[in-house]
């Protein structure tokens, strides 16, 4: 269970980073 929760947290962090990166890219391309 601990490993599963860790992978879930990691996935959420990666997804959050992608969202922030894509939003930053939109601002830069604007």
UniProtKB/TrEMBL annotation:
It comes from the Eukaryota. This is Uncharacterized protein. It comes from Nymphaea colorata.
